[in-house]
Design brief:
Number of strands: 21
CATH superfamily: Glycosyl hydrolase domain, family 43
Helix content: under 10%
Structural class: mainly beta
Strand content: 35-45%
CATH topology: Tachylectin-2, Chain A
Strand order of the largest sheet: 1-5-4-3-2
CATH class: Mainly Beta
Radius of gyration: 18 Å
Distance between the termini: 34 Å
Number of domains: 1
Shape: globular
CATH architecture: 5 Propeller
Number of helices: 1
Amino acid sequence: MLSRGRTTSMALAVAGVLAMLTGCVGGATSVPPTHAPSSTRSAFAIDQDFPDLDVMLVDGTYYAYATNVPGTNEQVATSRDLKTWKVSTTDALPDLPGWTSPGKTWAPDVSELSPGRFVMYFVAANVDPAAQCINVATSTSPTGPFTAVGTAALVCPPDQGGAIDPATFTDGNGARYLVWKNDGNCCGLDTWLQITPLAADGLTVAGPSTKLIKQTQSWEGNLVEAPTLVKHGTRFVLFYSANDYSGSKYAIGYATASSLLGPYTKHKQPLLSTASSGGRFTGPGGQDVVTTPDGRTILVFHSWAEGSAYRGMDELPLDWKNDEPVVKLPAQ
């Protein structure tokens, strides 16, 4: 079973290189959401390889972050309206820490700790232990450059297969948490979505981890991953992706709880899948939830282009019913 950030074909690598080459003028490439490969597939918001999303709003500008492509450790794009995006050709994380090796820097999560102070949690291949692990870096700008801090990975349980897919959550009292997945599918173990308290500076853990959910439903296959935790009304809503990222079975689900640490109850069917979207999105996953200044919520995620050449970025409005999410699909 391949981990989800890994390249699955030469076409993906070529697409990434071409994407960078076409964006070399002016430091960024503008990507209007106008291209739809077919009458069935919905148009991408970012029509190039840009998977494992995290989106942040700072001073009226949206910043989107994504997994590495050839020549870039962590991608960043900007938009003023969540419609037209400019993908930067500058690496948000140009230098990796010495305890990691290049080529597998996945799923960044960026948040603003205080005005002008930003922290990025990112996945990289740890040298010792030899596993994917979560690291932390800081910057004075949301576009970077981010610089890794510490002397080792932030979260890296070797007996659980390592750790990937970081996502931050801040509770109503200001306490910060990191939600993540142990990479158990790398080595025949269960995959748990877990939550770990962070210190106020976001650079160290502040307590033990709590396991929230693991793979239990048939549509999830042998893994759950890519957590996104939000609070809506009185409920904590844990979005996640599941199944094999490299094909059409990959999908987005969710679970809810009345308490931050659970117990979480899963919705029995995916929130969004290839089938439920009528083929408009193939293998949707790697999601984030964005709240706009006027109170709208947007589901941001990746899905496969036709021919599985790359994973572009998609957006859909989210409605809520009894504090549970409902996807609003576009008309065909």
